Amino acid sequence: MRIVRVSRPLSRSLPGLQINRVSCGFSTSSLARTAKDAVIEVSKTRNIGIIAHIDAGKTTTTERMLYYSGHTRRIGNVDEGSTVTDFLPAERARGVTIQSATISLHWPPVRENDQNIQSTKTSDLAPHNINLIDTPGHADFTFEVLRSLRILDGAVCILDGVAGVEAQTEKVWYQAAKYKIPKIIYINKLDRDGATFGATVKQIASRLHTWPAVCQVPWWEGGRRQFIGVGDAVGLRAIRWAGGGDGKSFEITQLNKLPKSEAAFIDEIKNARRALVELLSENDDQMVEKYLEAEEDHLAIRSEDVVASLRRCVLNPVANIVPIFAGASFRNIGVQLLLDAVVQLLPNPADAPDPELNLGGVEGTLSRLMNGDMLSTMSSHNSKVAKHKRHANALVQNLETCALAFKVVHDPRRGALVYVRVYSGIITPRSLLFNTNLQISERAPQLLKMYASDSVQIDAIPAGQIGVIPGLKHTRTGDTLISYIGANQKSGPPAPLNTLQLRPIEVPPAVFFSSVEPHSLGEEKDVRTALDLLIREDPSLQVVDDEESGQTLLSGMGEFHLEIAIDRLVNDLKAKASMGRIEIAYRESILQASQPETNAFDREQGGKQGRASCIATVEPLSEDYVPELDEYGYSAYEDGNRVTITLSSPPDPSSELGAWDGELPSHLSVPVIHNAVKNGALAALSRGINYAFQLHNTHVFINLNPRNHLFGAETTPQALSSAARLATKAALKATALKHGSALMELVMNVTVSVDEASLGAVVNDLSSSRGGHIMSLDDADVTSGPTVNSTNEDLPRIDISKVYAPPDPFGSSSQTQQLGIATDSSRQRNITARVPLKEMVGYLKHLRSLTGGRGTFVMSADKFERVVGQREKVLLKELRGY
Ligand SMILES: Nc1nc2c(ncn2[C@@H]2O[C@H](COP(=O)(O)OP(=O)(O)OP(=O)(O)O)[C@@H](O)[C@H]2O)c(=O)[nH]1
């Protein structure tokens, strides 16, 4: 039996790397250690997210990771509001994660001078740099999760061992699968009464449609209820943590040294090893070879070979395998082994799939761009780009850096902090970065690496790394930043590179809103600045000025989302404003196409004469419209509406980006014109003619003939926006007044989890009182049987009878399930339904009362649908108040 005590890492300095302490909270030694990130190689980097349902224990687990890696000197507690990652006042007050915190750590810790220090690694691991993102679990913050997912290379999914696979986990799981992110699962809270590891493993197969590769089995003290450690099926050993400690003391025992009283536990570890080798062999030929070399003895295969095979399978999406680990973070059990697994099994940035991008409306990948393929393909469609083909190689070679700003946070002391993930090249201080979304250049004044709310200054952010640029004035969450050798200071890199966008994501509709009323006229400017900051941080919030009512409206994705945004506006950003009631936003849709409307704008704007003109036509899109990005030359699809812009002499429907080959005024480029016109058209769609709601399913066509519609220096981008707004408004007015418009409401996809006893009452309430349509009723606890209850035909079907899971000796409901005795009233059922959003407001409270507090639900926006018949009359009466 080996006793290991992990003590604090010793301090060490790093010659040649300048480190400036930016804020307090760290010792010099930890800063020196962490600053090594700047020079750490890509193969030793992991950009990892932690995803889960609310309350599964993400923050609790992250706190342990920080502590064991030597980054903090004490373990923060969610329940006491003292965690490092949940640092916003609103997060600490509510005990939930709202923002994705980004934090870097080393695993194993850098500590070569200390002879006593060892970690629970399963092999001799060298220190790796882990950039960790703790994401929110609440459904209202799904967008925050999505925008983090797209810059991650791997994810740890944490499950609550009592609740099993919950609805929000499923949702985020499939999003991660969409971005092809390899994952490992950690089943947490195994110390709690009713925890069922085996049943949760089966649920992973049935509900997440993936093959669980059980790497650990829980260790219950002498077969009694107390959870004390884990059996490692990979390393064929058992790890027991000293009870009540900080988790740094543990014993590692090889299977043959375990006492006889643990015979059942030893057998289970062996069963798990056999099942693991079988599962890996089905997907990995090298494992089959190792198995044959070991003379078909599952237990004789070296643990290093099992790890290598697991890694190959995790990185291969076709294998569809997820390694499973066990623990109880709150009791400080299991977290070091989970960190080992992150390093051993999850990909480094070079292993991750090729990042997707969009270049002038054409979809591609970064490596296709860098090897010149993309530009060559585009040239066959577009005469203007053909000119660039000759220079394609030179163009790409001059592309120095490509990075994505995935998050902007306003820090009271340092201003806006822009978090970036660099995909190619390197960002150094003073780099000139061209923002392809805003078409402006900004210089990076300095670079930081973040440790939750603390930071250190670094010399560079190389490809594969995550870092922070403070002091950028304009960059928003989601913007792509590139640097290009010889770029024009003003207009940036040459076309089409100036349109390059990395992994664009669609912003979901903001459906709750509240008015924002500055306390006095004098406060108006400060309130506007605070609102601008808020939407720069979170693009799923929207600010709309309603010209007619004179009100400023702030909208968000959910009641809670908006509540937190208001809290941040008033308490953190100190905006002196009052907020109105939180209400639901409806939409309005036109019924018929308009005639083309020409508008000439000619007015003084900000002390300068502005002059521009264009032609607008609007037409309704079908409710099931799916945008096809390469259908038109330039087209934007935002918040359910589409804007198509042609720069040509009408009528010329085949016009494409760059088809205009004539002269443009020197201060205007094609992307600048597109951006200005698009913003003008979208502004006109923010208020409908008949009901004053934002337009939906509307396609705006703007035609602009530079010869007739541009007027030299007088045609500023602002003048173009105004012309597009007025022309679109005129077209909308013409059709809405003549043909009327439709009221639309958001319908949600709702999944309610209840026990069998409450099923009838909940179904009845959803379908009769809330106007919902029940889509399916499923068994949430599928832990046996030959096939799964797949509600989604596209997902792989897992034969549950072939899934290995250790028995659950104590879990209340699972115990009976293992024996095949279903106690009907406690059986968990999932109801999926489509319900109008309006009817779901305040639903949680109602559900709790219907289910004795046990029911839970998640929902996500499906689509806006036209309201008809009696419901339309009732809603309009409610909205108008008469
Ligand atoms: N018994 C037990 N409780 C735990 C464990 N891990 C976390 N908890 C508790 O579960 C609750 C939620 O933990 P968090 O770490 O805040 O969960 P989270 O997933 O970060 O939650 P959100 O940020 O709200 O999504 C807290 O009260 C924790 O103390 C565990 O291993 N055992």
Automatic annotation (TrEMBL):
**NCBIfam families this protein is in?**
small_GTP
Work out whether the entry's keyword set contains rRNA processing: no
Any one Gene Ontology cellular component term annotated for this protein: mitochondrial matrix
- UniProt keywords, alphabetically: GTP-binding, Mitochondrion, Nucleotide-binding, Protein biosynthesis
Q: Which gene encodes it?
A: MEF2
**Role played:** Mitochondrial GTPase that mediates the disassembly of ribosomes from messenger RNA at the termination of mitochondrial protein biosynthesis. Not involved in the GTP-dependent ribosomal translocation step during translation elongation. Catalyzes the GTP-dependent ribosomal translocation step during translation elongation. During this step, the ribosome changes from the pre-translocational (PRE) to the post-translocational (POST) state as the newly formed A-site-bound peptidyl-tRNA and P-site-bound deacylated tRNA move to the P and E sites, respectively. Catalyzes the coordinated movement of the two tRNA molecules, the mRNA and conformational changes in the ribosome.
Its predominant location is: mitochondrion
Question: Where does this one sit in the cell?
Answer: Mitochondrion
> What InterPro entries does its record include?
EF-G-like_DII (IPR053905), EFG2 (IPR030851), EFG_II (IPR041095), EFG_III (IPR009022), EFG_III/V (IPR035647), EFG_V (IPR035649), EFG_V-like (IPR000640), G_TR_CS (IPR031157)
Name the positions where GTP binds.
Answer: 52-59, 134-138, 188-191
Q: Name one Pfam family in it.
A: GTP_EFTU
Superkingdom of this protein's organism = Eukaryota
Q: Name one GO molecular function term.
A: GTPase activity
- Alphabetized PROSITE patterns for the sequence: G_TR_1, G_TR_2
Q: What is this protein called?
A: Ribosome-releasing factor 2, mitochondrial
Give the source lineage, highest ranks first.
Eukaryota, Fungi, Dikarya, Ascomycota, Pezizomycotina
Organism, by scientific name, is Cladonia borealis
Q: Return the Gene3D superfamilies for the record.
A: 3.30.70.240, Elongation Factor G (Translational Gtpase), domain 3, P-loop containing nucleotide triphosphate hydrolases, Translation factors
* Positions of the Tr-type G domain: 43-350
The UniProt entry's GO biological process terms, in alphabetical order, are: mitochondrial translation; ribosome disassembly
Which protein family is named in the record? Belongs to the TRAFAC class translation factor GTPase superfamily. Classic translation factor GTPase family. EF-G/EF-2 subfamily.
